[in-house]
Amino acid sequence: MWRLTGPARFYDRSESAFVYYQVDSGDTHLLSETVFPILKALAEKQRSTTELLDHLCQSDGLGSGVTEEQLVQQLQSLSAAAIVTQD
What we know:
- This protein is an alpha+beta fold.
- It has one domain: Outer Surface Protein A, domain 3 (Alpha-Beta Complex).
- The protein has three helices and five strands, in the order ββββαααβ.
- The strands form two sheets. A three-stranded antiparallel β-sheet has the order 2-3-4, with no helix packed on it. Strands 1-5 form a two-stranded antiparallel ribbon.
- It is globular and about 30 Å long.
- The chain starts with a strand and ends with a strand.
């Protein structure tokens, strides 16, 4: 199951990037708009990779063109930045 590492705030700049603020650590990240739907979905609840992929494909998120491999790569990048973690 994937989840956010802690409480967060989002600021969508309505551009090609958004600001992600981690409340507990005070860290601020400028992230590409492609990961915004992933983090919004994980802010709602923990999800497995499959659940997350299904959710994103059903919403306006990443659309039906995203593959599981692409999603896992994004999640691994977010994990390396200590934004998400896998239980």
